[in-house]
């Protein structure tokens, strides 16, 4: 009997395309490795990933200042306007994001950690998280972030790829295992699985040839329905900035459905960022400045 290999090749290609559009990322059946061998291979690959991202320059990042545009895709796949933003981080747990609104639009809940908010053309909103606290500067002035938004921010600190690669690998209870080869975006790739003391399910997909991350997957399970949900981040393009290889095109998918697209235009690392920027007092000062500017503009129009 003659056996054709064409269907198998087509199946592999199809799996690669599915991974490329952000579907649930899973490696092929893992190779038969002893636990010690799996951990050793994962460690070797992770060292290569860190080196590809900039080595010591990547590990030594303690703050960042990035500019870009972000868009949110609705449940029906509509293509929204992009919003300009500035994203400031003072590691490990301080973040400030400023959104510039050019036209009438609603900022979605996932962006601000709050209900959808409307801002007039030319308006600006700022979100700040500082450890277990958070605030929002919007049309109504400075308000506390909702508790669920602060919790989501805290969870993100523990499940982010950069946090895992820079610091969490050395935490007690964190383990990494080699999960086998795969095809991602039609590129040969490897998967590494992570677990920690809180039983989180995290996975990193890396390109074989460059050792750069292609996917970061956070899998969560609903305690009531027992259903698993995947949040997948896709990294498409990299550029070296201040010695750190930075992804410029980042997409996020929830269970295979695209939710956000981010384009970064620039990033600066280890600049002179003041911790004061990440306080409520700084937002109150910004609110006062915006109020004075709005009053002046209003007078000029009369």
Please, could you describe this protein's structure?
The chain is α+β, with helices and mostly antiparallel strands and 302 residues long. The chain has a domain of 199 residues: outer membrane lipoprotein receptor (LolB), chain A, CATH 2.50.20. 27% of the residues lie in helices and 40% in strands. The strands form 2 sheets. It has a 13-stranded antiparallel beta sheet. Strands 4-5 form a two-stranded antiparallel ribbon. Strand 12 and strand 13 form a beta hairpin. The radius of gyration is 21 Å and the shape is globular. The termini are far apart.
The name of the CATH topology of the domain at 32-168 and 240-301 is outer membrane lipoprotein receptor (LolB), chain A
Strand adjacency order, main sheet:
8-7-6-3-2-1-15-14-13-12-11-10-9
Report, as a whole number of angstroms, the end-to-end distance.
88 Å
Q: What gross morphology would you assign?
A: globular
What's the helical proportion of residues?
25-40%
Helix segment count?
A: 7
The CATH level-2 architecture of the domain at 32-168 and 240-301 is identified as Clam
In total, how many beta strands? 15
For the biggest sheet, the summary is: 13 strands, antiparallel
Mean pLDDT: 84
SS content category:
alpha+beta
Query: What would you report as the Rg, rounded to the nearest angstrom?
Result: 21 Å
- Low-confidence stretches are 1-27, 108-121
The CATH class of the domain at 32-168 and 240-301 turns out to be: Mainly Beta
What is the N-to-C succession of helices and strands? HHHEEEEHEEEEHHEEEEEEEH
Report the sheet-strand fraction: 35-45%
């Amino acid at each position: 009997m003659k056996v054709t290999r064409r269907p198998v090749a087509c199946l592999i290609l199809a799996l690669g395309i599915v991974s490329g559009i952000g579907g649930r990322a899973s490696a092929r059946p893992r190779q038969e490795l002893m636990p010690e061998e799996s951990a050793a291979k994962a460690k070797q690959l992770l060292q290569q990933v860190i080196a590809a991202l900039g080595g010591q320059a990547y590990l030594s990042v303690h703050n960042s200042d990035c500019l870009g545009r972000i868009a949110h895709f609705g449940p029906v796949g509509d293509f929204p306007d992009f919003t300009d933003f500035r994203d400031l981080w003072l590691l490990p747990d301080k973040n400030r994001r400023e959104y510039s609104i050019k036209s009438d639009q609603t900022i979605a809940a996932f962006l601000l950690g709050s209900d959808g908010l409307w801002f007039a053309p030319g308006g600006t909103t700022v979100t700040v998280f500082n450890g277990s606290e958070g605030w929002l500067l919007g049309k109504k002035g400075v308000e506390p972030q909702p508790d669920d938004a602060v919790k989501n921010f805290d969870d993100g600190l523990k499940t982010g790829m950069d946090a895992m690669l820079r610091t969490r690998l050395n935490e007690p209870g964190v383990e990494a295992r080699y999960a086998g080869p795969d095809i991602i975006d039609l590129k040969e790739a490897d998967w590494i699985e992570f677990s920690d003391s809180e039983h989180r399910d995290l996975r990193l997909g890396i390109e074989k040839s460059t050792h750069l991350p292609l996917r970061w997957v956070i899998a969560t399970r609903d305690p009531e329905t027992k259903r698993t949900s995947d949040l997948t981040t896709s990294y498409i393009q990299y550029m070296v900035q201040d010695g750190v290889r930075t992804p410029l095109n980042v997409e996020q998918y929830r269970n295979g459905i695209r939710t956000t697209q981010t384009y970064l235009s620039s990033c600066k690392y280890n600049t002179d960022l003041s911790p004061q920027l990440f306080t409520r007092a700084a937002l109150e000062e910004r609110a006062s400045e915006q109020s004075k500017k709005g009053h002046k503009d209003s007078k000029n129009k009369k």
